[in-house]
Write a structure and sequence with these properties.
The complex is a heterodimer of chains A (428) and B (1003). Chain A has 428 residues and is an all-alpha fold. Chain A is 55% helix and 1% strand. With 1003 residues, chain B is α/β, with parallel strands linked by helices. The chains are: A mainly alpha (428), B alpha/beta (1003).
Chain lengths: 428, 1003
């Protein structure tokens, strides 16, 4: 006869096992650091000429290790292919000819380890196609987790720990009781023989479960607690669009522009440095570069369909290189939406307080598609104002600094201390 | 403490009528019908509980469903090619001009959103008037025509031009006159365009006609000095000003210029130097100017000429007949005034509001005797604002009747409304074969015309103006025409055969060839500065050559024509003016500076005279004069001369637009004629009629329960003790605070308001509306005391009769004569108290104090308990009963797709159910601070100015940082005259007021 205590004991063991497993899993994540480094290197060094799945300037890298199983050769090829060719390596020369004698940039500054990491990344990437998305999703999830305060996590863990402890204690008590029952078995009347019937086992379990008032209480408590936590989280996040990533009319990639090509934020979003609006660049700013950069090498010599959208917006004919008179503005979808009653000024933060764009907008240079990195809640604003000290290197603040020194000598002067939390700073 | 004079805002407050007492008790004039709901639909029904649950269930479900919407997707549409000078989020200012005054147009992302004075101008450089401040709304007026029209149907410009040219050619070929009827045109470019039209069609005759004309003055100056012009007045040189029925601070000639100059000898800076001018006013109706006078004597319109004759006799020592023989009080005042005038020869001036040339000749004679032509009256750089000639328009009407006119072009003129014989004008227009109106809307005249060439506002045109000889301003467009309209000059040029020249080229060429020649200035410089000053150098005072005796005889004779039991006095109100801007909801809702009536005109009658006539407040009266009769609501007006009724012009328009149609009664038909000029006084009869009409009057809204909030002294006492009557404590005593002390280590924003400078004109109210997105609520809502103005100007009456001072309420009941009131204007806005009572009672901390001494209001936090409004001792908080910017019930005012474009994007448009109040233009404070930070420098005094301060033509409002001891406001607040309203309750307001000083005779 299976008794309740063994069931519960099994449950507890499973839970503990899960906990341990998940811990070890997070440890195993650290082992992937090599690939991570490889990814960073790949993105900064390789992507301007190579893609995994298609020919850009250079060939597709997919299946690179299978085509060239000799890793040492691959490493030296990547470090300096021209050297190999000059040395008369057959494979190298053949490869060079195959690719229209296109010279690959030498990367003499990379160590063997680093190049191997890149190869490992490319292999990992081609092996599991969905990894990238997963990575993104986990990134978003991770950033969302930032929204939960550490206290909440500690609280939940503490509740779980206490609950497990209670279950263990109760289980012990039940075991003792069962032992007593076992000892006095003779005194108790034999239960019906149907008990052994397999079909009725679940019913028996349910009956036993219902009979166990403590267990029921614990179960209900857990359900209520879980619902409460979930509800609390959902309610607090109504209207919070962290991770919001709408589909844009043009598949514009910040990763290519800000990441790969290292274009300064200010080049397109100059407003952020002088005005309340960071401003989305007008199409003529795009045309500064895209009159020459047509993306044709990625599209077999024809114009990139996305860049074609810019041309359509400004009514530009790439063949005649002339502008028409029927331009249509590009209707971007706003990613960062503040409510109308909140006043936010970019220049105050960017130019006066010298806050980096990434502080609020996240790793834009790695964003294939733009998403809302920060929650943009008032709490988030307030927390930053409480922590950030005022950039003293501004004559405007001289008087305030003097007053502050008198009152709170030595303490850092945060934005909050000079009225940065007052309603009228943002709401008027 | 302070004066124990009794001040009151309205007669109902003075008399403590039961209705007034009842209404003043509660926070809202109408109680909230909570009990009705509970009694009828709630508790007495059979199943209140089930109903309640049903409603609750439905409500909950509905709200849940409604809130389950997906967050709407918001688009961001950048420019295709961004203009270099535009940075989204940063305003651009362009120099332009309005009514000939150099102004700056503030634009955001290409939308004009406000007008400010051009402080660098060498003409008027201080503040704007209400009309200028409100002009932005005219740009976005949806009642304007959107396309040119031909025979009442939409057409295109090609067809219109062909038709007009054909008609003009026909008239020209037939040798018939082509009359071009306009308001006064002082724009050099428009005049050039008219000249070009004249070149093409030689029978073109330009006729200028003004709704309220000054052709009497022009005639008088022609006869007196052989200069047919309206002079410019430099009142800053005047130690004594005597005005006989001239509302020179309001609507008479150039009120804004007069205010700017007049205040220079009366504001706190002048008083600090121990100087103050004296102003004596004789008039029938209590005008804005009358309320500011040191001594005001009520006289009937028929006595005006006699007053001037007496003055003339006293000053020159002659004994012309026709001197004032009635009105004892006026006679004494005249003697004293004459003495003052003689003492200040060279620094004294007399002005008169009459449009009778003979009266003006007499005034010229007095002024010549007083040497006023040396410094004060300027005939060289004369005013070009009013060149209208009543006689030539009369001739036009006669000619039209006789069929001598082949075609007529109306340029921004609306004689079918503004002329006193509108029916005759209508017939005349119909008698002309072809008429075309250059107007922005289908107004009274345009609707009679065969064609309408829709004209642009000055925001959409290139142009210029010259309000006085030698001073030119430029008009530059700040937005493309919103509708299919074309500026007047372009239309005239097109009809003259020139369709190619652009307005820009036309104006620029004219300036470069005619105005800027030999000035050393380039067109670009002018475009940047906005004006060109080439004022002719002063020449010797002209010698007077008029015939005084003849003038006196004729004027006396003319006065007899209007003498009667009831004399009707028609006036141009200082805010609504001649009715041209009647569709401007901002202007309609500005309370009249004196009566505090919005959205209407009325018959103003002295309380005692009203008793005689048997009419009461909320009653109506039928006035007959000049063969015209009209029923007008009665306004009981203290200060009004006995036996007179005052009625404002500029109301009762029928074809101006949704907001202005049928607001008030048209009083133009009461205007009569004198020696060919328009006359604004007439003998009338009046009788009580049936009907009740409640005027939307704000005067007793937000009453302050008779507390001592006005401090007034006279100049003599001031000289002895500058702090006289300011109620300042001389002894130190310990005070205890319930509140924590607020530290303001950075800035401490405060304001100083000079009661002696404030004339009560109301331009601050409009400027505040425009700056802070304050909605217009309409007449009905004002009647319910729901006006939203953040700043109001309280007008207090007080009575002094001879030497009797009425200090107690029951004394005032014995007042015999309500002619003799004096007035104090007090701008009232949030006082940003350090110990703010509103903050204490807010249950959600929606209104809290800042470290810069401001009382913040977080709209998104407010949930509308209105406790704060109830607890505010100044009654300056306003509650949004509706979503005024987006509610179809308020469509006529600001709720349409175009007027939303004028919202200031830096200020939230408040939603229904929240409180609001003056923020001291916090958006400007923040912007000013940010600019300093960006430039890595300290904030300087004057970097930040509030909207009301910028708009004030009298410099009565000074704003700044109290922590900066050298700031203008710190200096002003160190003035001995400063007192704080209700300082005794220790709310520690941050706005200091300076006592009203009156330069009375007793002094």
């Amino acid at each position: 006869m299976r008794n309740i205590s063994s069931i519960i004991g099994g449950f507890v063991r499973t839970v503990s096992l899960c906990l341990i497993l998940s811990l070890s899993l997070s440890v195993s994540v650290f082992a992937q650091d090599d690939i991570k480094e490889g990814e960073t290197l790949y993105k900064s060094k390789c992507t301007s000429c190579h893609a995994l799945d298609r020919h850009l300037v250079g060939p597709a890298l997919e299946g690179m290790s299978e085509r060239h199983p000799d890793e040492e050769w691959l490493v030296s090829w990547i470090r300096n292919s021209q050297q190999l060719i000059q040395d008369g390596d057959e494979v190298a020369v053949q490869l060079f000819e195959e690719n229209n004698r296109m010279v690959m940039t030498a990367f003499t500054d990379l160590s063997d380890e680093q190049i191997k990491n890149i190869i490992a990344y490319v292999d990992a990437e081609t092996a599991g196609g969905g990894d990238e998305e997963q990575g993104d999703a986990s990134q978003i999830a991770a950033s969302q987790d930032k929204g939960i305060s550490p206290w909440m996590i500690i609280g939940v863990i503490a509740i779980a720990a206490v609950a497990i402890a209670i279950v263990l204690v109760l289980n012990r008590a039940i075991q003792t009781l069962e032992k007593l029952v076992e000892a006095n078995k003779d005194a108790i009347a034999e239960a019906a023989e149907e008990e052994s019937d397999r079909e009725n086992r679940f019913l028996v379990f349910a009956k036993a479960f219902v009979k166990n008032k403590k267990l029921v209480f614990f179960f209900v408590l857990m359900v209520v607690a879980i619902l409460g936590v979930v509800g609390w989280k959902v309610m607090w996040n109504v209207g919070v669009h962290e991770g919001y990533m709408p589909v844009q009319p043009i598949k514009f990639s910040h990763q290519i522009h800000a990441g790969v090509n290292q274009i300064d934020c200010q080049y397109c979003h100059g407003g952020a440095y002088e005005s309340r609006n960071a401003s989305i660049p007008s199409a003529n700013v795009c045309m500064n570069c895209h009159t020459t950069i047509t993306g044709a090498d990625h599209y077999d010599g024809s114009l990139s369909p996305e860049i074609a959208k810019i041309y359509k917006a400004v009514d530009y004919d790439p063949d005649t290189r002339e502008y028409g008179d029927n331009p249509k503005p590009i209707e971007w979808v706003r990613v960062h939406n503040l409510p109308d009653f909140a006043y936010f000024n970019h220049s105050q933060h960017v130019s006066v307080a010298n806050v980096d764009c990434e502080t609020c907008h996240g790793p834009v240079e790695a964003m294939e598609e733009m998403y809302q990195y920060s929650p943009l809640t008032m709490k988030w604003c307030v927390e930053c104002h409480q922590e950030t000290s005022v950039d003293m290197d501004n004559e405007y603040y001289d008087q305030l600094i003097e007053a502050h020194e008198k009152l709170k000598k030595g303490e850092k002067m945060t934005a909050a201390m000079i009225g940065g939390l007052e309603c009228g700073k943002c709401h008027y | 403490m302070g004066s124990n004079k009794k001040y009151w805002k309205g007669l109902e407050e003075l008399e403590q009528t039961p209705a007034f007492v009842e209404k003043s008790k509660g926070e809202f004039s109408e109680s909230i019908p909570v009990e009705n709901v509970l009694n009828e639909a709630g508790l007495s029904t059979k199943t209140p509980r089930r109903d309640f649950l049903k409603t609750l269930g439905f409500g909950l479900g509905a709200v849940t469903l409604a809130s389950c919407n997906r967050t709407p997707i918001r688009k961001a549409v950048p420019y295709i090619i961004k203009p270099e000078e535009v940075t989204p989020g940063i305003p651009n200012y362009y120099a332009s001009s309005f009514n000939g005054r150099s102004v700056l147009v503030k634009t955001r992302e290409g939308r004009p959103i406000a007008l400010e004075v051009n402080a660098d101008s060498t003409d008027i450089n201080q503040g704007t008037d209400a009309v200028t401040a409100a002009a932005i709304l005219d740009l976005y007026d949806m009642s304007k025509l959107q396309d040119p029209q031909l025979d009442g149907k939409k057409t295109d410009w090609g067809k219109l031009d062909t038709t007009v040219k054909k008609a003009l050619k026909k008239a020209n070929d037939a040798g018939k006159e082509i009359s071009l009827v306009s308001r006064t045109v002082n724009s050099p470019s428009t005049l050039l365009a008219i000249a070009k039209l004249k070149e093409e069609f030689e029978t073109v005759n330009h006729i200028q006609v003004d709704p309220v004309s000054y052709s009497g003055i022009i005639q008088a100056n022609k006869e007196s000095f052989d200069k047919a012009v309206v002079p410019t007045y430099h009142l800053e040189h005047a130690n004594v000003v005597v005005s006989v029925a001239a509302d020179f601070l309001g609507s008479w000639l150039d009120g804004q210029r007069h205010t700017q100059d007049y205040i220079k000898t009366r504001d706190y800076k002048s008083l600090k130097d121990g100087k103050m001018s004296r102003h004596i006013q004789f008039e029938a109706g209590l005008s804005l100017t009358g309320t500011n006078a040191d001594v005001r004597i009520a006289v009937k319109p028929s006595e005006e000429a006699a007053v001037l004759v007496s003055l003339y006799n006293e000053i020159t020592g002659s004994s012309q007949s026709g001197a004032l023989s009635t009105n004892k009080k006026a006679q004494t005042a005249i003697q004293l005034a004459a003495k003052e005038l003689k003492l200040n020869r060279g620094n004294a001036v007399v002005v008169a509001g009459s449009n009778d040339a003979q009266v003006q000749i007499l005034v010229n004679a007095i002024n010549a005797e007083l040497d006023a032509y040396n410094q004060i009256i300027d005939l060289e750089s004369y005013s070009k604002q009013y060149a209208g000639d009543d006689a030539s328009f009369k001739k036009f009407v006669d000619d039209a009747h006789a069929g001598r006119i082949g075609a007529a072009i109306f340029v921004d003129a609306n004689p079918a409304y503004t002329h006193y014989k509108a029916e005759e004008v209508e017939k005349a227009i119909k008698n002309i074969e072809f008429t075309v109106s250059l107007s922005d809307r289908k107004d009274e005249t345009a609707s009679l015309a065969n064609a309408i060439a829709t004209s642009c506002s000055f925001f959409e045109s290139w142009g210029d103006a010259s309000i006085r000889e030698g001073f030119y301003t430029i008009v530059q467009p700040t937005i493309n025409p919103l509708f299919n309209s074309r500026q007047i000059e372009k239309s005239l040029l097109a009809w003259a055969g020139d369709r190619e020249t652009s307005a820009y080229d036309f104006v620029r060429k004219n300036w470069e060839e005619n105005i800027l020649v030999d000035s050393g200035k380039s067109w670009k410089e002018i475009l940047q500065s906005g004006f060109f000053d080439n004022t002719p150098s002063e020449s010797a005072a002209p010698s007077f050559s008029g015939n005084v005796t003849d003038a006196i005889n004729k004027a006396t004779q003319a006065a007899k024509e209007i003498a009667g039991d009831i004399e009707l006095h028609l006036y141009e109100p200082s805010v609504m003016r001649d009715g041209h801007h009647a569709n401007n909801a901002y202007l309609q809702e500005v309370p009249d500076p004196v009566s505090k009536v919005t959205w209407d005109n009325y018959a103003a009658i002295n309380p005692k005279f009203a008793e005689e006539l048997g009419v009461k407040e909320k009653g109506k009266i039928k006035i007959k004069a000049n063969g015209y009769e009209a029923d007008l609501p009665v306004l009981i007006q203290p200060g009004q001369a006995m036996g007179t009724i005052s009625v404002a012009l500029g109301y009762g328009r029928t074809k101006v637009g949704k907001a202005g149609n049928n607001v008030g009664i048209n009083a133009y038909p009461f205007v009569s004629e004198i020696n060919g000029n328009k006359r604004f006084t007439v003998k009338a009869s009046a009788e009580k009629t049936a009907g009740i009409y409640e005027l939307a009057q704000t005067q007793t809204h937000h009453t302050i329960e008779g507390r001592n909030i006005i401090r007034e002294t006279n100049f003599q006492k001031y000289l002895e003790d500058p702090s006289s009557e300011s109620g300042q404590f001389k002894d130190e005593h310990k005070t205890y605070d319930l509140w924590n002390k607020y530290e303001s280590p950075g800035h401490k924003w405060v304001m100083a308001i000079d009661l002696n400078a404030c004339t009560g004109c109301g331009s601050c109210i409009v400027a505040c509306n425009v700056e802070n997105n304050v909605p217009v609520v309409g007449r009905d809502e004002v009647r319910r005391r729901r006006e939203m103005h953040w700043i109001r100007i309280d007008r207090y009456y007080t009575i002094e009769e001879d030497d009797k001072k009425y200090t107690k309420e029951h004394d005032i009941k014995n007042v015999e004569d309500f002619e003799n009131v004096s007035v104090v204007h007090q701008p009232m806005l949030c006082q940003h108290c350090d110990h703010a009572p509103c903050e204490t009672v807010c249950p959600v901390l929606a209104t809290v104090h800042s470290s810069e001494g401001l009382n913040h209001m977080a709209y998104n936090r407010c949930f509308g308990t209105r406790y704060c409004a109830n607890n505010c001792p100044y009654k300056v908080r306003r509650f949004n009963w509706f979503n005024y910017w987006n509610d179809s019930r308020f469509d006529n005012y600001l709720n349409n797709e175009f007027s939303q474009l004028m919202l200031n994007p830096d200020v939230t448009a408040r939603s229904r159910g929240v409180m609001e109040k003056c923020s001291m233009c916090i958006q400007r404070i923040q912007a000013g601070k940010l600019e300093a930070k960006m430039e890595n420098r300290k904030l300087e005094d004057g970097d930040i100015k509030t909207a009301c301060q910028v708009a004030c033509p009298a410099n009565a409002i000074v704003f700044g940082d109290l922590n900066d001891p050298n700031s203008e406001v710190s200096k002003a607040l160190r003035n001995e005259r400063v007192y704080y309203v209700l300082e005794e309750i220790n709310v520690q307001p941050n706005i200091g007021y300076m006592t009203k000083v009156r330069n009375t005779f007793e002094a």
